[in-house]
Specification:
Length: about 375
């Protein structure tokens, strides 16, 4: 029994770290009723539903069919990769970045594995992660922190778009350029038999997928979504409960506790309040706070002290802050987990490559933002 518990905690290093920092934060803020406000149930339910949906679609050969058509239609690794990355970028504007990555990163891994191009998996999924974060930055519905700041400061929609456009457009140019430079223009083919959709259960899989997406945009209630997903899975895909990455769900839960507690510590509040003395310092505070506690809680924490005139600078800061550390945006953890689960020996290369590209992007995008101010 003890061995199983030890294995559960040590199997996933990211979860273990999140668990430890959550426990440490609880020494400063003892468990109380305010903890209930930390947990973002919608995020956890949507992630759970998307994991089930992706597993069900994969089981029904959906990804195989789409991959076969795409690879045989375009044939080039560079072109196929660019299409996948741009799809991630533009979908991020309509659906939150974590939902897009949960759906498309497994597809990318499938394509690279079955075209025998696995050495390019890491660079493609890193660019996907950046594409999801930069694409979603443009719209209020693209990111949870965008939704929060958009509503808290009552930012006009077109002002929001105009404010974020330099970040998203610069990001698009960087992503396309990086893809064209780093990925070779080599002919690829799928080394797997041509597949067909298995049966009617594909409809159920898409129903679960759509329920999760509709929950993201607020059309379907979170409890209704959870009950529907659980019921459909029990009836049609009971075995898929075992394929859910519960470590990832718990990692997000631990970060909710950690960030919630940090935002309650008086010393932190005083330091943060002292940082927001100008528009520039607000941008910088948004960026660096995101590196430590991720951009959603950073937006919530800093907005408490920011003036309405600083809202747009805070908005830009936390969105640029999605890049940098892998917890700059918790959506980035999703990609990291997929890669580490599939290629456990590649975590060092992933982190180094991700960090280098992020630093370059941050410098260029931040320069553009300040030049245009």
């Amino acid at each position: 029994m003890l061995a199983q518990i030890k294995s559960f905690f040590t199997k996933d290093k990211v979860f273990l770290i999140s668990f430890v920092v959550a426990l440490i934060s609880m020494l400063f803020v003892l468990p109380n009723q305010s903890y209930l406000g930390y947990f973002k149930l919608e995020v956890l339910v949507v992630m759970f539903g998307l994991m089930i949906a992706v597993s069900a679609l994969s089981e029904q050969n959906f990804f195989k069919v789409v991959a076969t058509h795409m690879v045989r239609q375009f044939k080039s690794l560079k072109l196929v990769s660019l299409i996948i990355i741009l799809t991630t970028f533009f979908l991020g504007m309509l659906v939150t970045n974590d939902a897009v990555l949960l759906t498309l990163v497994p597809f990318t891994i499938y394509v690279t594995k079955h075209t025998k191009q696995e050495k390019y998996t890491i660079i493609i999924v890193i660019l996907q992660t950046l594409a999801a974060n930069l694409g979603s930055a443009l719209t209020p519905m693209g990111d949870p922190q965008n939704i929060y700041l958009y509503s808290k400061f009552d930012i006009p929609f077109m002002v929001f778009i105009k404010t974020m456009l330099p970040i998203t457009l610069t990001g698009l140019v960087l992503i396309v350029t990086t893809t064209l430079i780093l990925l070779p223009n080599k002919t690829i083919d799928l080394y797997t038999p041509k597949e067909r959709i298995k049966d009617y259960k594909i409809v159920v899989a898409f129903t679960i997928l759509m329920l999760s997406i509709l929950c993201v945009v607020g059309v379907v209630d979170v409890i209704v979504t959870l009950l529907a997903v659980v019921l459909l899975t029990m009836i049609f895909f009971k075995h898929l409960f075992k394929k859910v990455d519960y470590h990832l769900l718990l990692t997000f839960t631990m970060f909710f506790i950690f960030t919630g507690n940090v935002s309650q510590i008086n010393v932190v509040k005083e330091v943060v309040g002292a940082l927001l003395v100008s528009n520039t310092s607000t941008f910088i505070a948004g960026f660096f706070t995101s590196q430590v506690i991720s951009n959603v809680p950073a937006a919530v924490l800093l907005s408490t002290f920011a003036q309405s005139s600083q809202a747009l600078y805070l908005l830009q800061g936390v969105n640029v802050g999605a890049m940098g550390t892998i917890i700059g945006s918790l959506a980035s953890l999703i990609t990291y987990k997929f890669v580490i689960n599939e290629y456990p020996n590649e975590f060092k290369r992933y982190l180094i490559t991700y960090t280098i590209i992020c630093v370059i992007y941050i410098v260029i995008i931040t320069s553009v933002v300040f030049i245009l101010k």
